[in-house]
Amino acid sequence: MLTRAWPGGYLLPYTQRACDAAHELEDQGATLVSGAFANKEIELLRTEIESVYESIPGDGRGANTSRSIDDDFRYEMYNRSPLVQQFVGRRELLDVIEPLLGEDCHIIANTCWRNPPNDSPKHGGGGWHIDAGPHIPLVEGQVWPEDIPHPTFAVGVHVYLQDCPLESGPTAVIPGTHKSGRPPPGDSRFDTELTHNGVGASTFAAETGDVLFFVSDVWHRRMPPSTHHQGRFFLQVHYARRDIAQRVKTTQERNHVDDQARSRITGPREALLLGLHSQGFYDG
């Protein structure tokens, strides 16, 4: 755990007592906080988010997805909903993530998910993956030392707007895999029985108002939903250290490259150097 010290702004070890959820998040790579928000608060938030779905169409940001799947998502939600803007700064969330990311951490992505009932379209994080990283890659056979806390660079947060029972295909995490320094094996991407160091998946069925936190490089996925289910509906917020750039808008839309400099770009490597990156996960 860390803190940003001033003057200088250097990172130092966090020596205060953090909440239990922050410790579990750092150690296991994920934690579920039950009843973080009251149902009345979530009802208001859900109503406002539903109005965003009604008033703003899907914007095609989801790479390699059909138009129907793209409609499951709404991006940059704190720009589109005053209530979302309030919620993403609530202490119920920040008290868990700030000891891991620093008091000056910021939001790098803010997407709402509304996966439809039943099993069509077949989408929603359905295979083992990581959102970013691994931030500290390790070769096969290397082991992160247990006496050194593994650093956290980004945290995904799901605020549940409706119940997400096992039938709906909730998020599962393989605890401790954020320390592996490796992505999940590609040939086992859809294996629900996948293990790492003898540890299998923890599936986080959730109720309205619960909040799931998971570090960006822990192995996670949506578990297969039942044939009949009510879908999933949650607000997703990704927080990261100040050092990691925001991705709420794509770099093609918001960047630091003046028009004259852009006209002088001679190739793809120069574009990357100047910050014009192709679309990635946090961009949609």
Itemize the secondary structure elements and their pairings.
Layout: E1 2-5, E2 10-13, H1 20-28, E3 30-33, H2 39-55, H3 67-70, E4 73-74, H4 77-80, H5 82-87, H6 91-101, E5 106-115, E6 154-160, E7 171-173, E8 202-203, E9 211-215, E10 220-222, E11 232-240, H7 259-263, H8 268-273
Strand segment tally: 11
Indicate the proportion of strand residues: 15-25%
What percent of the residues sit in helical stretches (DSSP H or I)? 10-25%
Order of helices and strands: EEHEHHEHHHEEEEEEEHH
Largest sheet, strands/sense/barrel: 6 strands, antiparallel
Descriptive notes:
The chain is an alpha+beta fold and 284 residues long. 22% of the residues lie in helices and 19% in strands. It has 8 helices and 11 strands. The protein has helices spanning 20-28, 39-55, 67-70, 77-80, 82-87, 91-101, 259-263, 268-273, and strands spanning 2-5, 10-13, 30-33, 73-74, 106-115, 154-160, 171-173, 202-203, 211-215, 220-222, 232-240. The strands form 3 sheets. A 6-stranded antiparallel beta sheet has the order 3-9-6-11-5-4, covered by helices on one side. The chain has a 3-stranded antiparallel beta sheet with strand order 8-7-10, with no helix packed on it. Strands 1-2 form a two-stranded antiparallel sheet. A hairpin with a 4-residue loop joins β1 and β2 (10-13). α1 packs across α6. The relative contact order is 0.20. The mean pLDDT is 90.
